[in-house]
Known about the structure:
By secondary structure, the chain is an alpha/beta fold. 36% of the residues lie in helices and 22% in strands. It is built from 18 helices and 23 strands. The protein has a 9-stranded mixed β-sheet with strand order 13-12-14-15-23-22-21-18-19, with helices on both faces. Strands 5-2-6-1-7-10-11 form a 7-stranded parallel β-sheet, sandwiched between helices. Strands 16-17-20 form a 3-stranded mixed β-sheet, covered by helices on one side. A hairpin with a 4-residue loop joins strand 8 and strand 9. Helix 1 (19-32) packs parallel to helix 3, helix 1 crosses helix 9 (249-255) and helix 5 (116-135) packs across helix 6 (154-167). The longest helix is centred in the N-terminal third of the chain and has 20 residues, at 116-135. Bound molecules: glutamine. The site of glutamine has 10 residues, from strand 19.
Amino acid sequence: xxxxxxxxxxxxxxxxxxxxxxxxxxxxxxxxxxxxxxxxxxxxxxxxxxxxxxxxxxxxxxxxxxxxxxxxxxxxxxxxxxxxxxxxxxxxxxxxxxxxxxxxxxxxxxxxxxxxxxxxxxxxxxxxxxxxxxxxxxxxxxxxxxxxxxxxxxxxxxxxxxxxxxxxxxxxxxxxxxxxxxxxxxxxxxxxxxxxxxxxxxxxxxxxxxxxxxxxxxxxxxxxxxxxxxxxxxxxxxxxxxxxxxxxxxxxxxxxxxxxxxxxxxxxxxxxxxxxxxxxxxxxxxxxxxxxxxxxxxxxxxxxxxxxxxxxxxxxxxxxxxxxxxxxxxxxxxxxxxxxxxxxxxxxxxxxxxxxxxxxxxxxxxxxxxxxxxxxxxxxxxxxxxxxxxxxxxxxxxxxxxxxxxxxxxxxxxxxxxxxxxxxxxxxxxxxxxxxxxxxxxxxxxxxxxxxxxxxxxxxxxxxxxxxxxxxxxxxxxxxxxxxxxxxxxxxxxxxxxxxxxxxxxxxxxxxxxxxxxxxxxxxxxxxxxxx
Length: 532
Ligand code: GLN
């Protein structure tokens, strides 16, 4: 294909309507037609990346292969499209300003007054087009974070306006809005959508396609009314009503021909409707699974499911693969202790101890792990979850009662988890962890090898602390094996108890590398063990 096509997904009325899912669904449909597609997210906040945001602010921090701490929507992009994203797929206002200010200091604009327009907008446009020009994608879908009308998103919307002018038919805007149902009046209301489109028009953008988020299906008359008020073709008013799973959204969009309309509007051949066989197989399995698998997720953000987004999705993908319904229970680590662990955990088929930072809730993780280790319940520990496995084993089996991670107690005489050497003198908190994909060599005689079926794997990381190799022989002599090691640094990446049914801890995050059509091998193995 000659020119890259740029599609923008903006949002109106309220946030959290699922722009990321709509962008991913459209991307999926275009990809199924054989196009090379990527999706990127532009976030209007000033943080350089989401690594320094806590999950209460912004949900999970996703990590790309190249070590970028990203918005969680990148996780959706990867899970839907089954291709990795990079640092270039997630840009913030902070990154844009940082780059412009660096250029100003270097003298790139010598003699000029540096301004929002054109310098900031030029930098935004350069970044929007970077993936298209560098990697020759057919389609670059750009999701603009926030809601139209936000002060902070103005330069992004202005950049979209300019690009539409410059790129003509190679550029298109899909605007996502909300159509609420007012129970007292027994009516759905289109006024917020009308206002939101007006706002976009005031900023110089006429969206070609509207996607209306709605709890219930809308009648044709409503779509016709929206089309009339918003200068949009009737067939280009598409509804995104509530469905049981986000993975059904591409089908809902396909039924209303979202992909075809995009192609027509961009002057491209439409062709046959794609089959999407693996995707549909996944959905059928998800809907028809009879037996369930009951998994307890032990963490401190249980009231906030977005905090463990990729873990939830990886569990669902693996359970579906094994023809199981995922019965997921969030267990608050602050509420778990030695006295109630049996009551809360004994009915679970498997326990996953979540990643995290800091002291809060950590004792509950130890209580959970002591219980599952002693009662042979399949257990997966991820990052901090793996580190707590190490500390629990040290305290209760190696009888090092004062064992700890130096993250929790710097003065512990037995720091079985310790700060990594290169982390010791860091001053900056942002982007300074051990981040991104690293090789790990796996012991052939291990459950993890059975899972991955290969000796060298690559998984993504996000941590500052590590297994302390000074204790390795002591652990191994007592049946706690280090079965995965980084070939260059010798950092321990995987631990397991071979005598246990399935007790595995990983320093890396397998959840960042699990997609609908290709669930992560470790999650598959964990769910398989839990299902037996
Ligand atoms: N807090 C731990 C560390 O920095 C674990 C991090 C995590 O779970 N992502 O090493």
